[in-house]
């Protein structure tokens, strides 16, 4: 899926490396600061201001437009649970677009430069496998130095799939937030992603998920 996203538009660069298990496609991605969920906690009362929420939703819709129109990919996919996880509540199963799989970019390059300099005294955790260093994921980059450039980007395409007729009918999305076509079993396609963006906006416009399914 990542290979398809990268090659659909030549401006999205990547490369391949050969390892003991074959050839692997690698995407060249810009470093990202943190998830939108962590960023939300920085805001006053942990709430998105209306203008900021509107700007972020517009950016996400533009990203979905590229995925749908040029790549023909649906971000939402089937949720497959391991038998030992069946006690997880429905609202905790978030395979759809949510604040944890949307990241924001760095507001200034100085934040990365400061982090790199700090590695000399406090190296981040890593492990060595076959001579290669594997670093622990990092999202603790300190306080914001400005409020510009914090552009949201979608990720987590592990359950994404290419759209193909006829529409899919297997269940997707968390039970409380399922789109009407999913509930009715009439078949879903790109509209499922748009529904997820709408739910995301409603959740954070009202600052709560209480009784939201009844409102929708």
Describe this structure in words.
By secondary structure, the protein is α+β, with helices and mostly antiparallel strands. Helix content is 32%, strand content 16%. The chain contains seven helices and nine strands, in the order αβββααββαββββααα. The protein has helices spanning 2-8, 36-42, 50-71, 109-118, 180-184, 191-205, 212-215; strands at 14-19, 22-27, 32-35, 73-74, 102-105, 126-129, 132-135, 152-154, 161-162. The chain has a three-stranded antiparallel β-sheet with strand order 3-5-8. A two-stranded antiparallel ribbon has the order 1-2. Helix 3 runs antiparallel to helix 6. The chain is globular, with a radius of gyration of 19 Å. The model is unreliable at 81-94 (pLDDT under 50).
Strand content: 15-25%
Rg measurement, Å: 19 Å
Largest sheet: 3 strands, antiparallel
Query: What is the helix/strand order?
Result: HEEEHHEEHEEEEHHH
Poorly predicted runs are 81-94
* Percent helix range: 25-40%
Roughly what is the average pLDDT, rounded to an integer? 79
- First CA to last CA: what distance? 31 Å
Describe what is shown at a glance:
The protein is α+β, with helices and mostly antiparallel strands and 216 residues long. The protein contains seven helices and nine strands, in the order H-E-E-E-H-H-E-E-H-E-E-E-E-H-H-H. It has helices at 2-8, 36-42, 50-71, 109-118, 180-184, 191-205, 212-215; strands spanning 14-19, 22-27, 32-35, 73-74, 102-105, 126-129, 132-135, 152-154, 161-162.
